Amino acid sequence: MTATAAAAAPAEASESPISTARACTQNAPRFTSWPGTGVNDPAFWPARGTYATTTTRCNDINLKLDSRREVRTCFKRGTGWNCNGWRWLPANRWDEAATDVLDGTKFFLQFKGTARASGLIDY
Questions:
Q1: 60 in a domain, yes or no?
Q2: What share of the chain is helix, strand, coil (3-state, %, to 5)?
Q3: CA distance 2 to 23
Q4: What is the DSSP letter of 60?
Q5: How far apart are CA 30 and CA 44, in angstroms?
Q6: Biggest alpha carbon–alpha carbon distance for the chain
Q7: Residue 71 domain-assigned?
């Protein structure tokens, strides 16, 4: 996958309005990734050409997946994107796709394979 293709625009906000602040992972929103097209184009979230931005609510990028899956996080660095290594996340419990992420960091997720991933997300 050419990582620079994800640099277009931010994803739609998935967080609660500021007036109804909540703790990290409490009432976290559901997500479903987009399917990939092959080995070099794995499933991804958010939509192609978009990214998410970390908030002050969480220190980490947290996922509670519906099924066990390998995931990696890609971060905006200058004019391009850098992806960390693949890591297995369990099903049905909270775990981190990335830890100690600065507030306001732009990112997207990739899920190994082409099948959609789903679950809860908070960041």
A1: yes
A2: 5, 40, 50
A3: 35
A4: S
A5: 15
A6: 43
A7: yes
**Number of domains present in the structure of the chain:** 1
Task: Count CB neighbours of 86 within 10 A.
Answer: 13
Q: Are strands 69-77 and 87-89 parallel, antiparallel or unpaired?
A: antiparallel
Question: What is this structure's pTM?
Answer: 0.82
Mind listing the pLDDT tens digit for each residue in 70-109? 999 999 999 999 999 999 999 999 999 999 999 999 999 9
For residues 53 and 107, what is the distance between their CA atoms, to the nearest angstrom?
Answer: 6
For residue 32, the cross-strand partners are 118
| CA distances in angstroms from 16 to 29, 45, 74, 95, listed in the order given | 9, 19, 24, 21
Reduce the DSSP state of residue 41 to 3 states and report it. Answer: strand
Range of the domain at 109: 49-122
C-beta separation of 49 from 10 below 8 A: no
Q: In what order do the strands lie in the sheet with 95-98?
A: 30-32, 118-122, 61-65, 95-98
Res 13 pLDDT > 60:
no
